[in-house]
Amino acid sequence: MLMVWLPNGRWRLFGLLGASILFYLWSEPRFFWVALASSYLDFWVTARMHRALMEKRTQTARRLVGLGILSNVALLLYYKYLLFFSDGFNRLLQLVGNDWRIPAFHIALPIAISFIVFEKITYLVDVYRGKSLPETRFHLYLTYVLLFPKLLAGPIIKYHEIEPQLHAPRGGSRTQDVVTGFKRFTLGLIKKLLLADALAGMVDQIFAMPADHVGASLAWLAVVGFALQIYLDFSSYSDMAIGLARMYGFRLRENFNYPYISRNFTEFWRRWHISLSTWIREYLYIPLGGNRHGDTRMYANLCICFTLSGLWHGANWTFLAWGIFHGLFLVLDKLGWVRISQKFPSFVNIAITFLFICIGWALFRAQTIDQAGMMIGRMFTFSSPSAPLVMGAYIWSALVISLAMAFVPAFPAYWRMKRNRRYLAFLRSIAPWLLCVLGFIAIGKAVTATSIPFLYFRF
Question: Model's pTM, two decimal places?
Answer without folding.
Answer: 0.90
